[in-house]
Amino acid sequence: MTNFCSSIQNALFGMGNPLLDISAVVDKDFLDKYGLKPNDQILAEEKHKALFDEIVKKSKVEYHAGGSTQNSVKIAQWMIQEPHKVATFFGCIGTDHFGEILKQKAAEAHVDAHYYEQSQEPTGTCAACITGDNRSLVANLAAANCYNKEKHLDVDSNWSLVEKARVYYIAGFFLTVSPESILKVAKHASDNNKIFGLNLSAPFISQFFKEPLMKVMPYVDIIFGNETTEDIAEIARRVQSLPKVNKNRQRIVVFTQGREDTVATVGDKVKMFPVLDIDQNDIVDTNGAGDAFVGGFLSELVQEKPLEECIRAGHYAANVIIRRVGCTFPEKPDFH
Predict the structure, then answer these.
(1) Number of Cβ within a 10 Å radius of residue 271
(2) Neighbour order of strands in the sheet with 167-171
(3) CA nearest neighbour of 222 among 202, 208, 240
(4) Is the predicted pLDDT of residue 74 greater than 60, yes or no?
(5) Cys-Cys with 300: which of 53, 227, 262, 305 at CB 3.0–4.6 Å?
(6) DSSP code, position 151
(7) Catalytic residues
(8) If we measure between CA atoms, which residue out of 258, 301, 327, 321 comes closest to residue 71?
């Protein structure tokens, strides 16, 4: 067991936008005051600045380490349980109270987080304003936008953690922050026949950030996407046929579609994988489902399990997460 433990530590590397999720139950007056819809996801504007100070004063406020990539590596770590620190995470935070909470939450999740800390911008936050079954999300990227390749990724002690990994995962959201960092990690993976995964995240990534996306695409081994894309099988085939530098690995494309089958392509074969059944009444919050799927998938991938097992673990993790508020999970998984 010792060999397995030491070889799998820091084997998974994630880089992205670390956000502190702040969730609290609010009333309709609170939503109206800040012009929020009961169910929505928006980026914070000037008029929302005071919302973040006000929400932390609510009676039942909960803090969770968030941000898409950080959620996924946290879930991968939860699925694996032992050893700790299987996952390394890089991202940018502020030198403030929220930054301290993020560090503490990452440590509690046994993720080996190495944040780039700067004082120009405060730690990024995402406020989840809950009314009944609805949650209105307001994200303020702030510090997350300030990740600096030269001052963090290129530093020897940090880069050595990148070199230690075997599987790399970055959500597409980070393309808006530091495409040069993504490219450096992706090239390293490709040159050393390691596995690099990228998530197409929100549709706006493929629309507005086409150029950085296309630059990194030749180095991508696994593409994740979700149901916001129209003709899944066709898109999967097109992505499959884009140029690829490392010819030793076939590109794999994995698209989840909520309760519909997950679609995966390997070479020119398209396979469908049914998700786990769930009673509609047991679904509490589908928000973290995509991140959870990737987390489950990565937990098996890093242990060199076949694609079918990775997808089965992804389906299991997503099924657990959607029964709970936010991207949270019970103490131990029950995955066999």
Answers:
(1) 14
(2) 112-118, 87-94, 12-15, 167-171, 195-199, 222-225, 252-257, 260-266, 269-273
(3) 240
(4) yes
(5) 305
(6) I
(7) 291
(8) 327
